[in-house]
Amino acid sequence: MHKTYRVGLFLVLITFFSMGISAQSANALTGQQSDSLPNIALNNSVGKMVWQPIPSRTPTPTATETPSTPQSSIESVLAQGGLMTWFFDGFSGDEITITANSADFDTFLQLYGIDGTLLAENDDYHDGTNSQIIFTLPADGIYQVVVSAYYGDMSGAYTLVLSGIESELREKIQGGIFVVTPTPTFTPTTEASPTATFTHTPTITATITPSPTITPSPTFGFDRGQCPANLPPRLAINGRGRVLPGDASTVYEQPSSDSATLGEIPGGVSFTVLDGPVCANNQIWWQVAYRDVTGWVIEAGNGEYFLEPLRR
Question: For the chain, what percentages of helix, strand and coil (3-state, to nearest 5) are there?
């Protein structure tokens, strides 16, 4: 009887052992855990075997690609006292970012419309000497970017980056998607004029009343009587200007050549306009800032200009 009992118990253990192997094999093949089969523990004289379910696999999430912002970049070199113009095609409503970076000089950046209207400008941003303009374009067309040095006697390499728009920077106004229409020129036609017939009329003697003499005001100010003829002021407050290439421009303490001199601005070098114009003794004066010097310089006199607006 004991022998029969042991044989029966052995068969039961073999049955459970087979069930454990089948469940474990199925889990290994399918990669899934069966919830209907419990963990099976077998005890014998050799040791203890415990079957554990295979842990479920967590799928790895797929990375989402972030779309890149379109941009165009140019690497170039600015000459001393020079400025460089670049063109691009823009569209109404596009918000663009233009950045000029240089390790050699303090950059100055300007954005113009095709008609020459100044739209935006910047000297420094992020407490550095690089320049950046963020601007929403008002219309479709060709735009101009002008790069220069804040101090015109500086030069060096720079990088210009245009981002936020599908457009390429280029050196010439032509070559984009917009067609540049040349301004038509008018050629007058010569036609024969009819022969004039003269009729004698009595001579009328007019009485001429002399005009009062205008005496220039002794105080400084924009008085046309003290301004040079045919030389209208061209600079603007808060704008940029430069001394024409050649001789340096003397900086005075007051808008008078009799006042104390504060320094000089070399030819071809740019500055910032602070105040003016003031006309005195047939000269046009502007208050400017150049490096650490602030004073008055002569824009025009003696029939010629000495300064010019810094544009393109």
Answer: 10, 35, 55
pTM: 0.54
Same fold, 71-163 and 224-309: no
For the segment 129-142, what is each residue's pLDDT rounded down to a tens digit?
999 999 999 999 99
Alpha carbons within 13 angstroms on the beta-carbon side of residue 121 total 19
For the structural domain made of 224-309, what CATH number should be given? 2.30.30.40
Q: 3-class DSSP state for residue 12?
A: helix
Backbone torsions φ then ψ of 145, nearest 5 degrees: -115, 125
Domain topology for 71-163: Jelly Rolls (2.60.120)
Q: Which two tokens stand for residue 162?
A: 């245009």
10 Å CB burial of residue 40 (0-12, 13-18, 19+) is middle
Nearest to 265 by CA among 210, 312, 211, 306: 306
Domains of the chain, residue spans: 7-50, 71-163, 224-309
